Amino acid sequence: MKKSKLRAGMAAIILIGITLIGCGAKEKGDVEGEVFTIGVNQLVKHAALDASYQGFVDALEEAGYKDGKNIKIDYQNAQGDQSNTNTIASKLVNDNNDLILAIGTPAAQAVANATKDIPILVTAVTDPAESGLVKTNDAPGGNVSGTSDLTPVKRQMELLKQLVPDAINVAILYCSSESNSKIQAEIAMEAAKDLGIKASIATVSDSNEIHQVVQSLVGTVDAIYAPTDNIIAEGMPTVASIANANGIPVICGEEGMVDKGGLATYGIDYYKLGKLTGKQAVRIIEGEAETATMPIEYIPDDEYTFKINEDVAAELGINIPEELAAEME
Questions:
Q1: Residue 75, domain CATH
Q2: Is residue 301 packed enough to be buried (19+ CB in 10 Å), middle (13-18) or exposed (0-12)?
Q3: What is the pLDDT of residues 54-81, one digit of tens each?
Q4: pLDDT number for residue 324
Q5: Residues 78 and 94 in one domain
Q6: In contact, 10 and 285? CB cutoff 8 Å
Q7: CB of 6 within 8 A of CB of 98?
Q8: Quick one: 16 and 87 in the same domain?
Q9: How far is the CA of 211 from the CAs of 217, 235, 247, 254, in angstroms?
Q10: Are residues 81 and 191 in the same domain?
Q11: Cα–Cα distance between 225 and 164 in angstroms, integer?
Q12: Which of 89, 102, 173, 307 is most exposed, with minimal Cβ within 10 Å?
């Protein structure tokens, strides 16, 4: 956890009434000496991950920690390339940051493999334990903790059945290299079985395969379910352009994918998720918590959001049931 370095950073930026390294308390804006540094490794730019990062930054600022004033944030984006996440992870570790934020499962795995000493917070990771990042989600036991973006996958599949009641064959579309997506796909397969839907797996290895794979589904499936997969989220305009043109509704894992042409979702607010992670960072900065004993946190069930793309619904000729229409008001 690099406790000695954390103490040095805290002394420079935290308003407390005691001394940690023999110097007097400072106002948060009155920085002298070393500034607390936070490295960021974000897998790719798309609405959900961008919102997570913004929420993280805003939570820090609300607590009195502003980039360029009393903390320094080194934001890096891997542009969806796994090799880039590893390069960025090495850079952030070599730069000896006091804390690292990893946004997206591949980015989190890259950073976790690069250091066992620097505290790491992850966000937009479906199941940190299943992804090998922590011992358990309740008791991480190492230098990694953070927040999960596990969405109500079963409810999303039920939503598919509500909006497309005649759907029999459904493809679950995701990137095979994302462990978080595999976890959601397994849940979706079980939910489909319970709903009497024949579900099949359709995977891509990278964004270049999206067009070909989605095109291959035309004429074979009645709907597509796309979980919170980063590669599919980034390529959602391609997915939607093919699916919608061929009368195939796409139920999505998060709101940003709906905005880019998906039909509907029950999802989480990624900005709120980022703020939740930022509050964890504040507790670490101020010495109130350590990753080893900080449980993975989740957006509460009662804060899930329903969103439907009414333009897409009209294009596909889908009637919105009254109970769902009421949720939109």
A1: 3.40.50.2300
A2: exposed
A3: 999 999 999 999 999 999 999 999 998 9
A4: 87
A5: yes
A6: yes
A7: yes
A8: yes
A9: 10, 9, 16, 20
A10: no
A11: 12
A12: 307
255 and 286, same domain (yes or no): no
173 neighbors 224 (Cβ within 8 angstroms): yes
Residue-wise pLDDT for 88-127, tens only, equals 999 999 999 999 999 999 999 999 999 999 999 999 999 9
Q: Residue 82 carries which DSSP code?
A: H
Range of the domain at 62: 3-149+270-298
The reply to whether 88 and 164 lie within a common domain is: no
Q: How far is CA 263 from CA 164, 192, 228, in A?
A: 11, 18, 14
Compute the residue count for the chain. 329
User: Are 255 and 304 a contacting pair, CB within 8 Å?
Assistant: no
Alpha carbon 51 to its chain centroid, in Å, reads: 9
User: 113 and 210: one domain?
Assistant: no
Given this model, what pLDDT does residue 181 score?
A: 93
The proportion of the chain whose per-residue pLDDT surpasses 70, expressed as a percent, equals: 90
State the total domains in the chain. 2
Asked if residue 95 lies in contact with residue 37, where contact means CB atoms within 8 angstroms, the answer is yes
What's the pLDDT tens digit per position in 210-254? 999 999 999 999 999 999 999 999 999 999 999 999 999 999 999
Q: Same domain for 87 and 185?
A: no
CA torsion 48→52→54→58, rounded to 10°?
Answer: 150
pLDDT in tens, 288-302: 999 999 999 999 988
